[in-house]
Design goal:
The protein is α/β, with parallel strands linked by helices. The structure holds 5'-O-[(S)-butoxy(hydroxy)phosphoryl]adenosine. 5'-O-[(S)-butoxy(hydroxy)phosphoryl]adenosine (WT7) binds at residues 268, 315-316, 391-394, 426-431, 452, 514-516, 528, 531, 537, 540, 542.
Length: 667
């Protein structure tokens, strides 16, 4: 079992548990009653939450239909519209003037968009998409930077009942093409480009490249002008957003969709090469994201300014930047750029500028800020922050304690720290789970640095051994989900067999296999130990070893490749690749080859997949049956002892590889 941030590796003066602050607890949005209610009757709890949190056009009957397990139906027969729930109803309730989005562009431009304005924008976009032939059930690929039109497009799709498939703007044209093909997208929404570290970066040329070959299903490309760079247009296919959307009617009569109507597809990496199209539907997804956005972050829409730093290209952006916060009518910040542009205090400057109350971010970003030094955040007034959240990977206790002390306890420059630091909520969940599954509840539960604590109310989690038997306190095993949950994936797009195989075969259809290892401590609190499969976690992003291996092997000079995740102080894990060149390339300069192959993966998949190290090796360690021993390569990549190489067909191979790694890639 691999472990990215083993618990208990540091000893701090204060390592918790930290009880909730008394003032916070007294005023908290949620209370322990949630756990009691869910514990007493899980389905009744979810039904009450669904009715209490959302507006349904038609009430549902049965709460859960699991008769066709592992295919679930939640809130059976209910009808609702996700966009109406996220926008229009807040206007109807008199909150039209409240800011929905506080957009900040990387160059420093900003836009404040109220709920009333958002309602009009979404209606216009919905009308425009329909005029381009998009209707209920169609798929729309969204390949965009972090700008308001991205959120507007997602909501406009939801309003019509078209499925959006957001493709992270950092992905390559190949990645976009394969995702658009798999989903058979009719429309692609993109931008000319965006800004990255002070420079324009382009998106539209990648769309052109993705569509260069015939045989795709895309009829139109709708292009938002963001950075004004010159981009080429294909007559008849490409349209500017500003030519098509603004003069549409700001009224759009919505239809209510079935609770189980598909809301979106989002691709994520699995253990095999091909990304999986994770399918989410309307009623259950919206219920769980709305409830957890409220309870995990103590969200008060009237007064809070919430900020999730995730890109909308990932599930965190879907659930906790679009659907969860907006379903609650919250005000939130959306930021286009990177945290170090134009300076390393940008995040904290924005917290102070907007008076951010909740900051939801990734451990890798916290570690980066630690590296830059506490003097930087100490220059800013961070006193507005009430709740801090983390997601994507286990947070190491050092980073957790730094976050609490330097950010959560800050009252502003030169002032004594807060007596009640902002609680930290470490949230464990996945693209597949749709919403939070394990997380402390601020004001209610205690917290410990590095522990995700306990299942959220209404979620049934277990840790089991190889046989599927529960493990006890102080023991580790496989993380499983023991009961269906509202925001669960409904399947893999057009691949029901893969859905069963991936999640419901390890322990049968009784237990959902999450792919993570986990441990109960002596108090019964949960610690996530990292993936148990061939999935890497780089900066909180999921990458498949096989996918990167396939990319390397596709290079004409590569004969074989093995990829492992190595420990990395900032990104959690880093991609390390071992490659064998083919016979014709054996004379090539290994260093030049290594640089070229890193570039190749970057261009093929995207910058996040670019290996930290590529090592050209004469041989890969294999068992006598021919299986690559990744475990040994992982040890080498980590600079550890090679370990037991006795089952190798040729043990001398490892000695050579370890020696090369030490001399060439010593850090
Ligand atoms: C995998 C899911 C959930 C949105 C971001 C990633 C890891 C996620 C935590 C956490 C330890 C975590 C797991 C999980 N993970 N959150 N709080 N503590 N590990 O979504 O790309 O679907 O990846 O991320 O390994 O299985 P994803």
């Amino acid at each position: 079992m691999s472990s990215t941030a083993a618990p208990g590796t540091v000893q701090h003066e204060q390592t918790g548990p930290f009880p909730p602050g008394a003032r916070f607890a007294a005023a908290a949005v949620a209370d322990a009653g949630r756990y009691e209610a869910a514990g007493a009757d899980r389905l009744a709890y979810w039904a009450e939450q669904a009715r209490g949190t959302l507006s349904w056009d038609t009430d549902f009957g049965e709460v859960l239909d699991w008769s066709d397990a592992p295919f679930a139906k939640w809130f059976v027969g209910g009808q609702l519209n996700a966009a109406y729930n996220c926008v229009d109803r807040h206007v109807e309730a008199g909150h039209g003037e409240r800011a929905a989005l506080l957009f900040e562009g990387e160059p420093g431009d900003s836009r404040r968009i109220t709920y009333a304005e958002l309602a009009e924008e979404v209606a216009r976009a919905a009308n425009a998409f329909e005029s381009l032939g998009v209707s209920k059930g169609d798929r729309v690929a969204i390949y965009m930077p972090m700008i308001p039109e991205t959120v507007i497009s997602m909501l406009a799709c939801a309003r019509i009942g078209a499925l959006h498939s957001v493709v992270f703007g950092g992905f390559s044209s190949d990645a976009l093409r394969s995702r658009a093909d798999d989903a058979e997208a009719k429309l692609i929404i993109t931008a000319d480009g965006s800004y990255r570290r002070g420079k324009p970066s382009l998106l539209k040329p990648n769309v052109d490249e993705a569509l260069a070959e015939p045989g795709h299903t895309v009829e139109h490309v709708l292009v938002v002008r963001r950075n004004g760079e010159d981009v080429s247009f294909t007559e008849g296919r490409d349209l500017w957003w500003h030519d098509v959307v603004p003069d549409r009617s700001a009224e759009h009569a919505y239809a209510a969709h079935d609770s189980e109507h598909p809301l979106f597809i989002l691709y994520t990496s699995g253990t095999t090469g091909k990304p999986k199209g994770i399918l989410h539907t309307t009623g259950g997804y919206l219920t769980q994201t709305a409830v957890t956005a409220r309870d995990s972050f103590d969200l008060r829409p009237e007064t809070d300014v919430y900020w999730c730093t995730a890109d909308v290209g990932w599930i965190t952006g879907h659930s906790y930047l679009v659907y969860g916060p907006l379903a609650n009518g919250a005000t939130q910040v959306i930021y286009e750029g990177t945290p170090d542009t134009p300076h390393k205090g940008r995040l904290w400057e924005m917290v102070a500028k907007y008076g951010v109350t909740q900051l939801y971010t990734a451990p890798t970003l916290i570690r980066t800020c630690m590296k830059w030094g506490r003097e930087i955040p100490e220059e800013y007034d961070l006193s507005s922050l009430r709740v801090l959240g983390t997601v994507g990977e286990a947070i190491n206790p050092e980073a957790w304690l730094w976050f609490r002390e330097v950010i959560g306890a800050s009252s502003g420059p030169g002032r004594p720290p807060k007596d009640e630091p902002a609680p930290i909520v470490d949230t464990w969940w996945q693209t597949e789970t749709g919403g939070h599954m394990i997380a402390p509840m601020p004001g209610v539960t205690h917290t410990k640095p590095g522990s995700a604590q306990k299942p959220v109310p209404g979620i049934d989690i277990g840790i089991v051994d190889e046989m599927g038997e529960p493990v006890g306190r102080g023991e580790s095993g496989f993380l499983v989900i023991k009961q269906p949950w509202p925001a669960m994936l409904r399947g893999i797009w057009r691949d029901p067999e893969r859905y069963r195989d991936t999640y419901w075969s390890r322990f049968g259809t009784d237990l959902y296999f999450a792919g993570d290892g986990a441990r109960y401590d002596e108090d019964g609190d949960i610690w996530i130990l990292g993936r148990v499969d061939d999935v890497m976690n780089v900066s909180g992003h999921r990458l498949s070893t096989t996918e990167i291996e396939s990319s390397l092997v596709a290079h004409e000079q590569v004969a074989e490749a093995a990829v492992v995740g190595a420990k990395d102080a900032t990104t959690g894990e880093a991609v390390v690749a071992f490659v064998i060149l083919n016979a014709e390339s054996e004379q090539a300069d290994p260093e030049a080859m290594e640089a070229q192959l890193r570039e190749h993966v970057r261009a093929d998949i995207g910058p996040i997949a670019k290996p930290r190290n590529v090592l050209v090796v004469p041989e890969l360690p294999k068992t006598r049956s021919g299986k690559i021993m990744r475990r040994l390569l992982k040890n080498v990549a980590n600079g550890d002892d090679v370990g037991d190489a006795s089952t190798l067909s040729d043990p001398s191979v490892m000695i050579q590889i370890a020696e090369d790694m030490r001399t060439k890639h010593a850090e």
